[in-house]
Amino acid sequence: MKRFITVSFLLLSLLIHYCQAELGIGLGYPYLGVKYNFSGRYSSEIKWATGDGINVYAGRGYWNFYSGEKLKGFVGPELGYITFDTLDIKGTGYEGALFIGGECFLTKRLSLALDFSPTLIGLESDDFKVNGVEWVANLSLYYYLWKN
Q1: Of 11, 54, 114, 140, whose CB neighbour count within 10 A is largest?
Q2: What's 22-146's CATH class?
Q3: pLDDT, tens digit, for every residue of 28-45?
């Protein structure tokens, strides 16, 4: 297992270095994310949000329609899986969104990102089944481990 982790880390490092890619850790309220910038135009992210018995595991795709030295503008889709166990109700669900936002670089490796999205949320338990659209805003701080 140690050998697998070491080889995986080395291969990821080489891929990031030669592909001009960037890897960042994002901290938002109340979530943690890992963002991988493939190029100046495309990125992906995996996110885990938690709070009060609710967990959301989501994946995002980004298209950077504007990329300046200190500012990026982006749009993209998000899909997620929800688990909840609150107030004697336990169940699962999904969420899907189309978001738009921006990222402002405070330093070369540190940025602040904000995005907005209408998010379709569907939840189901043994007794209930609900769905609807909610407006969601995400504010997060990213630290890029590798930055080209």
Answers
A1: 140
A2: mainly beta
A3: 988 999 998 887 799 999
